[in-house]
Design goal:
It is a single chain. This protein is α/β, with parallel strands linked by helices. It contains nine helices and seven strands, in the order αββαβαβαβαααβαβα. It has a single domain, classed as Rossmann fold. The chain has a seven-stranded mixed β-sheet, with helices on both faces. α2 links the parallel β2 and β3. α3 packs across α4. The longest helix is centred in the middle third of the chain and has 19 residues. The radius of gyration is 17 Å and the shape is globular. The N and C termini lie far apart (34 Å). Keywords: Hydrolase.
């Protein structure tokens, strides 16, 4: 198995697509969260859903508890896939990870076509949070309050025993992240959020504009932390519009 196979799930391979979309999930999430996105965007966009260690088919691997460590491991793994224009979409934890991936790609000479940062304060506005220090019951309650994971799934003791280490590692990574000073991104940033998100105010998300030298756009939708589950068509439309703009600007 190659590093690409280890980290990336291409649920609906689109080898003839002109653009690619790298998708990074929230804390406790997995590549399968983007299965529907992959199905909807294929064959126009080749969706690359990232599978973090310590869950699903990577259950036996140790979890990574730092966003910087995740980015350091992921970027070399996706290097073989950077031959086509690549946009990045990340939600919550995935937004900050996407930013760090974009920074590393740009340092290597690969400029993403855009970073879509969803449901997360700008990197320099990260909050001081300690949910990852709670016991299992407290951490589980915090997750359920956000509403992103099926409650019935988290009520299954056998499932919970398998996923809890990954959940705790992800929360640790998200809540202990420290922004490191450096150049702004060269690629556009499109920030998205819910207007009632307890994890990210509109002002905190709007501050993403400070991290790019290029275009910035803020989109605010009704809803909480997982607002995106209720506005999937709107988000897919934004992703398609961006991909088509990249395709039309590419030399034939």
């Amino acid at each position: 198995m190659t590093e690409v196979d280890l980290w990336v799930r291409r649920f609906h391979p689109a080898d003839d697509a002109e653009t690619q979309l790298l998708c990074l999930s929230h804390a406790g999430g997995s590549a399968s969260y983007f299965f529907g996105v992959s199905r909807a965007l294929a064959p126009e966009i080749d969706v690359l859903a990232v599978q973090y260690p310590g869950r699903q088919d990577r259950l036996r691997e140790p979890c990574l508890r730092s966003i910087h460590d995740l980015a350091d491991a992921l970027v070399p793994a996706i290097a073989p896939l950077t031959g086509r224009p690549l946009a990045i979409f990340g939600h919550s934890l995935g937004a900050t990870l996407g930013y760090e991936v974009a920074r590393r790609l740009e340092q290597s000479g690969v400029i993403p076509t855009a970073l879509f940062a969803s449901g997360r304060p700008a990197p320099h506005r990260s909050r001081l949070e300690r949910t990852h220090l709670r016991d299992d019951a407290g951490l589980l309650a915090a997750m359920k309050q956000l509403g992103g994971t099926e409650a019935a799934l988290l009520d299954d003791e056998d499932v919970l025993a398998m996923v809890m280490p990954a959940i705790r590692a992800d929360y640790t990574a998200a809540e202990t992240y420290t922004h490191r000073a450096g150049p702004k991104l060269s690629c556009p940033i499109f920030a998205l959020t819910g207007d009632d998100d307890p994890k990210a105010t509109v002002a905190e998300v709007e501050a993403w504009r400070e991290h790019t030298e290029a275009e910035f756009e803020l989109s605010v939708f009704p809803g909480g932390h997982f607002y995106l589950n209720n506005v999937v068509p709107d988000i897919l439309a934004k992703l398609r519009t961006h991909a088509r703009s990249v395709s039309s600007a590419s030399p034939r």
